[in-house]
Amino acid sequence: MTIRLQTVAEQVYGLATSNDPLAPLIKEALDVIDEGLDACGVNNVSISFNGGKDCTVLLHLFAGALGRRRSEAECSSPIPAIYIAVPSSFPVLEEFIQDAAEAYNLDLFNCRPPQEDTIETVVTPAASKITRGTDYIHPLPRPKGVGKAKGGEGMRQALELYKNEFPDISGILIGTRRTDPHGNKISFRCPTDEGWPEFDRVNPIINWSYANVWTFLRQLNIPYCKLYDEGYTSLGSTYNTFPNPALLVTPSTNPDEPPLDSTSSIVSPATALKTVMSTTHSEPQTPDTLSATKVLSKYMTNTHADSLTAFGTDGKPNRQDVNSGTFTSAPQYWPAYMLKDDHLERAGRD
């Protein structure tokens, strides 16, 4: 079902003028989007959408901004968007991107590297255009490697393809935040670097925190990729993306004991990751590992047991052998929105 843009506009602009704690950030983001639309033209702004939590927030805000400007008839026009895929992307993420493209009526230009290329080699991406669920493949020269570049060159080539296909697009909305790599160097609006296709990069949510993102998504019941409910907090390629070790749930010798307070020591993500890697052995865990559930609770926003598949409704672990301190099933993770420390957002990225 396609989302009605005017309804989204009423929702987000209403929230922006309310007494809600998120109101100032929402208003700021909408103002930045509106300024970008004024500068570039309402039909000349696209959104970079890869299915992640940040760009999902941005897509909803963009839909609201367009819904406020467009007439009823104009709202049926597709929203320009570009998806620059990574090699070996998650199938469930691809499915979510398709669902979002249909729900928000995106005219989604898909730049995708060949399947045989690994994450270590950036290539000239192949391209297809996804319009309302239909794939249109553009014939391109055979992709060429660009040495050991890790992503910048591939991104430049993808934007070059996009510019050639849609020369009227002059602005692209991007869901970058301050805590992202290189996020501390950006402003709300900045041009692409010299030698890149000319676009006005618009960054409406740079001042949002990790918690702000999840509050917005959950408060407005906006669908998001279900990988986040499985402990992933930052999504990339299947080669370098794992559930966040800070959200790992481990057995406890005393599951009824309350979490440690804020003065207690913290188990590092590296220690938690070692616990994940040892989940198949039968030897008893060390006392430090057994207390990890209590210690890791400091990273979480709450401790609702019904949010966790490893626990029953009584709040006790479902594993029958918990008292022996051994694992007999796959590790369990709290959902992404339970992460409390913004600095650990990318702890699941290699």
Automatic annotation (TrEMBL):
<dbReference type="GO" id="GO:0005524">
    <property type="term" value="F:ATP binding"/>
</dbReference>
<dbReference type="GO" id="GO:0003919">
    <property type="term" value="F:FMN adenylyltransferase activity"/>
</dbReference>
<feature type="domain" description="Phosphoadenosine phosphosulphate reductase">
    <location>
        <begin position="45"/>
        <end position="241"/>
    </location>
</feature>
<keyword id="KW-0285">Flavoprotein</keyword>
<keyword id="KW-0548">Nucleotidyltransferase</keyword>
<dbReference type="InterPro" id="IPR014729">
    <property type="entry name" value="Rossmann-like_a/b/a_fold"/>
</dbReference>
<dbReference type="InterPro" id="IPR002500">
    <property type="entry name" value="PAPS_reduct_dom"/>
</dbReference>
<dbReference type="Pfam" id="PF01507">
    <property type="entry name" value="PAPS_reduct"/>
</dbReference>
<keyword id="KW-0288">FMN</keyword>
<protein>
    <recommendedName>
        <fullName>FAD synthase</fullName>
        <ecNumber>2.7.7.2</ecNumber>
    </recommendedName>
</protein>
<keyword id="KW-0547">Nucleotide-binding</keyword>
<keyword id="KW-0274">FAD</keyword>
<keyword id="KW-0067">ATP-binding</keyword>
<comment type="pathway">
    <text>Cofactor biosynthesis; FAD biosynthesis; FAD from FMN: step 1/1.</text>
</comment>
<keyword id="KW-0808">Transferase</keyword>
<dbReference type="GO" id="GO:0006747">
    <property type="term" value="P:FAD biosynthetic process"/>
</dbReference>
